[in-house]
């Protein structure tokens, strides 16, 4: 990169950005994703810009610590940031580069764009790291924690994609990635939305892991989320063929310990019926004990509970 006039190229990029913004405000032609078409960007990229960002990619592939390249820091401000990022070959970045990039993008992108960065850049690298080393190193784990700076993007770009059956997420991946939920505060509104969405997906061991860690944070849940979680469990009452593992029973126990007082008598009876059909020798007696000894909400209802969504 020594022969490249970085400052001059950054000015060129800034001017191009202003031209694009002017075109947008004048009603320029946008694609369905809200950006100018990829063909337009490929045609308009200055060869020096391509050279610059390929050089930035070489720096990112060696980066260990220190100041990030100035040209990299401005990427979140560019409308075609995905294309520019691709020039830097993110698959070759060091773990330290991933962490620094996550800091920059989580701080400077809107939620929907941060979600995109998490999903196409961060998540694949996290999964590759776990596959190869069976764990995340210091920088990668800190990048995962930093991603929670944008909780909505974190859930939509990382957690929910991992819960899709097509993702073929391993239990190791789920345990490692979900562990960050235990360590970092997640605003209750976003956690409630994630719990509701996962509960609608049905049972898998991976979803159980994420639900368990979210339920364990003991949020005060709106009735809609409580209803969704109860439905998640009781849908299997009359499905004796499904194999529900110990994680499912532990998640049910944790839910009952935390929220039996907040569910209705009808829902409590539905859960009691459920554990007659699906049992675990050690856990089910505890579930039954909690359900029988704890009054439900229509017997003892705290004032104003329905609207409470703040974390305990």
The ordered H/E elements are HHHHHHHHHHHHHHHH
**Structural class based on helices, strands and sheet pairing:** mainly alpha
Strand count, sense and barrel status of the largest sheet are: none
Please count the beta strands (DSSP E, at least 2 residues each): 0
Shape estimate:
elongated
Number of domains: 3
Mean residue pLDDT: 86
Number of helices: 16
Roughly what fraction of the amino acids lie in strands?
under 5%
* Helical content class: 55-70%
C-alpha-based Rg, rounded: 24 Å
Tell me the distance between the termini: 52 Å
Low-confidence stretches: 20-43, 304-312
Can you tell me about this structure?
By secondary structure, this protein is mainly alpha-helical. It folds into 3 domains: 1-93, no CATH class; 95-184, no CATH class; 191-312. The chain is built from 16 helices and no strands. The chain has helices at 6-25, 38-44, 47-60, 70-73, 81-87, 95-108, 111-133, 138-147, 151-163, 171-183, 188-201, 205-215, 223-234, 246-259, 265-277, 283-293. The termini are far apart. Residues 20-43 and 304-312 have low confidence and may be disordered.
Summarize the structure.
The chain has 312 residues and is an all-alpha fold. It contains 16 helices and no strands.
Give me the secondary-structure topology.
Layout lengths: L5 H20 L12 H7 L2 H14 L9 H4 L7 H7 L7 H14 L2 H23 L4 H10 L3 H13 L7 H13 L4 H14 L3 H11 L7 H12 L11 H14 L5 H13 L5 H11 L19
Helix pairs in contact: 6-7, 6-8, 7-8, 7-9, 9-11, 10-12, 11-12, 11-13, 12-14, 13-15, 14-16, 15-16
């Amino acid at each position: 990169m020594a022969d490249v006039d970085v400052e001059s190229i950054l000015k060129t990029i800034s001017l191009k950005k202003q031209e694009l913004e002017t075109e947008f405000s004048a009603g320029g032609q946008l694609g369905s994703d809200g950006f100018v078409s990829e063909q337009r960007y490929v045609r308009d990229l200055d060869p020096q810009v391509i050279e610059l960002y390929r050089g930035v990619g070489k720096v990112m592939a060696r980066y260990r610590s220190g100041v990030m390249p100035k040209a990299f820091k401005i990427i979140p401000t560019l409308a075609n940031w995905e294309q520019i990022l691709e020039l830097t070959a993110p698959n070759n970045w060091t773990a330290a580069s991933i962490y620094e990039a996550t800091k920059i993008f989580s701080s400077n992108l809107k939620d929907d764009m941060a979600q995109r960065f998490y999903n196409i850049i961060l998540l694949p690298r996290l999964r590759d790291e776990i596959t190869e080393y069976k764990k995340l190193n210091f920088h990668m784990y800190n990048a995962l924690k930093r991603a929670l700076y944008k909780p909505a993007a974190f859930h939509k770009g990382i957690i929910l994609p991992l819960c899709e059956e097509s993702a073929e997420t391993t239990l190791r991946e789920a345990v490692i990635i979900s562990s960050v939920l235990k360590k970092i505060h997640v605003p209750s509104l976003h956690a409630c939305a994630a719990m509701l969405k996962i509960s609608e997906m049905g049972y898998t061991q991976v979803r159980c892991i994420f639900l368990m860690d979210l339920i364990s944070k003991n949020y005060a849940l709106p009735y809609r989320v409580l209803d969704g979680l109860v439905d998640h469990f009781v849908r299997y009452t009359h499905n004796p063929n499904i194999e529900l593992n110990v994680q499912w029973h532990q998640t049910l126990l944790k839910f009952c310990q935390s929220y039996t007082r907040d569910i209705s008598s009808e829902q409590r009876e539905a859960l009691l019926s459920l554990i007659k059909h699906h049992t675990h020798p050690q856990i089910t007696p505890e579930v039954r004990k909690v359900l029988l000894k704890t009054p439900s909400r229509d017997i003892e209802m705290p004032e104003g509970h329905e609207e409470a969504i703040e974390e305990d």
